[in-house]
Specification:
The protein has helices at 14-20, 25-34, 49-57. It is mainly α. It has a domain at 14-57. The chain is extended and about 45 Å long. The mean pLDDT is 77.
Length: 80
């Protein structure tokens, strides 16, 4: 049975991440929960020990059963 919870994503810039991770996430997390988010996650590179330490200290845990899948796209001709 598919997961029926509402999914909301918040993308941040590297500057936002440096300035507000993870302490400033409290208000954002509260807004996401109010919108129906059942889980909040963070993507941290596998070898980013500092990032993993920060998120772990904020109560997050590594979820080993998930992996990110990506596919590179060929550049398109045209304006960006």
């Amino acid at each position: 049975m598919p997961d029926q919870r509402r999914r909301v994503r918040r993308v941040t810039t590297p500057r936002e991440n440096r300035d507000r991770v993870p302490g400033g996430r409290g208000a954002a997390a509260a807004r996401l929960v109010a919108l129906g988010a059942g889980r909040i996650d963070a993507m941290v590179l596998q070898h980013n020990d500092l990032g993993q330490t920060i998120w772990r200290a904020a109560g997050y845990r590594r979820q080993d059963e998930w992996r990110r899948w990506v596919r590179e796209q060929a550049p398109t001709a045209g304006p960006r």
